[in-house]
């Protein structure tokens, strides 16, 4: 004969399990259903468009300013959305197992089932917290990517104005799998490589105005920090670009590296191989250069740059 206390405990445990099957499980389904429905809808729509739609032209387009940054920005925003969606799913699952864990404790269920419910509660809760933290960190990455994108767009506006001086500009030149050149301008006045460095102004840590960058030929000394990478990067990319154009055209092509900082006043302490300046000074600097490249060579250089940068599908 089974004691009444044991019978009562088993009855409560059974009722709790039944309530979990029809009540708590619906919470998880409600949390997961929107994500699954959205994923299914996107996949179906993508396949449908691929089957019935075609681009209006087959010719590829030139890369716009900040193309690589724009792609990374889109990917980061998409990742934030998915992090938030899956965090909601994890939170819903954690709430379900929290409810179950409390009921098991109240019903005096076995230690095994209580431990399982508590472990799953901790796992889903921890996963949800990690997803929220990652989404928050990615918002800072989005801010930095957007700043870099706006900086490249600001420089591109200046370069477009130089068309009246015979310059042709190219943006986001793909140098390799993991690096690119922000801007290239080519004309009879030379070939110039431009690396854009967009940086926010912050409170100065030293006796230096908040809008001034001191350039000594090796580093860019901001009021709140120092950039040692911009100058070597510009020099390295200029050498690689010069080598590429020389091979493509069959003629020696010299490339002058420039570092442009939108919105900053650059204080130079000398005349250096790599010039640093802001966007307002850039147009005058390029217009005042002497003509050093033959027009026929310029056309060959432009053709080589166009071939490399024209890789955007018309979709």
Q: Could you explain the architecture of this structure?
A:
It is built from 6 helices and 11 strands. With 315 residues, it is α/β, with parallel strands linked by helices. The model is unreliable at 1-21 (pLDDT under 50). The protein has helices at residues 4-52, 67-107, 111-161, 230-249, 279-287, 295-309, and strands at residues 61-62, 168-174, 180-187, 190-196, 212-215, 220-222, 225-227, 255-260, 265-268, 275-277, 310-312. The protein is elongated. A 5-stranded mixed β-sheet has the order 2-3-4-8-10, with helices on both faces. A 4-stranded mixed β-sheet has the order 7-6-5-9, with no helix packed on it. Strands 1-11 form a two-stranded antiparallel ribbon. It folds into 2 domains: 4-149, no CATH class; 166-312, no CATH class.
Which terms summarize this structure?
315 residues; four-stranded mixed beta sheet; 11 strands
Count of helical stretches? 6
What is the count of β-strands?
A: 11
Give the terminus-to-terminus CA distance: 76 Å
Q: Which shape, going by the Cα principal axes?
A: elongated
H/E topology pattern: HEHHEEEEEEHEEEHHE
Strand order of the largest sheet: 2-3-4-8-10
Rg, alpha carbons: 30 Å
Largest sheet: 5 strands, mixed
Number of domains: 2
- As a percent range, the share of strand residues is 15-25%
């Amino acid at each position: 004969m089974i004691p009444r206390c044991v019978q009562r405990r088993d009855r409560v445990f059974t009722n709790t399990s039944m309530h979990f099957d029809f009540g708590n499980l619906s919470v998880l389904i409600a949390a997961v259903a929107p994500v699954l429905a959205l994923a299914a809808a996107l996949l179906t729509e993508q396949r449908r468009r691929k089957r019935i739609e075609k681009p209006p032209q087959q010719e590829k387009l030139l890369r716009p300013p900040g193309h690589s940054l724009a792609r990374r920005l889109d990917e980061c925003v998409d990742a934030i959305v998915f992090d938030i969606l899956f965090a909601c799913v994890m939170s819903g699952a954690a709430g379900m197992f929290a409810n179950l864990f409390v009921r098991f404790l109240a019903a005096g269920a076995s230690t095994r089932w209580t431990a399982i419910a508590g472990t799953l509660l901790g796992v889903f809760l921890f996963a949800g917290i990690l997803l929220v933290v990652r989404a928050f960190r990615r918002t800072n990455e989005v801010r930095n990517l957007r700043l870099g994108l706006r900086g490249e767009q600001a420089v591109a506006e200046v370069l477009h104005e130089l068309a009246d001086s015979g310059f042709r500009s190219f943006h986001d030149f793909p140098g390799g799998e993991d690096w690119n050149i922000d801007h290239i301008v080519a004309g009879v006045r030379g070939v110039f490589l431009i690396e854009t460095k967009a940086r926010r102004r912050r409170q100065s840590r030293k006796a230096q105005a908040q809008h001034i960058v001191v350039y000594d030929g090796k580093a860019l000394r901001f009021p709140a920090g120092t950039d040692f990478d911009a100058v070597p990067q510009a020099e390295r990319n200029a050498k690689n670009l010069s080598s590429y154009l020389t091979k493509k055209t069959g003629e020696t092509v010299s490339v002058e590296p420039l570092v442009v900082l939108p919105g900053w006043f650059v204080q130079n302490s000398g005349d250096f191989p790599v010039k640093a300046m802001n966007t307002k000074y850039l147009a005058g600097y390029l217009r005042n250069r002497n003509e050093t490249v033959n027009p026929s060579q310029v056309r060959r250089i432009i053709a080589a740059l166009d071939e490399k940068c024209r890789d955007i599908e018309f979709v």
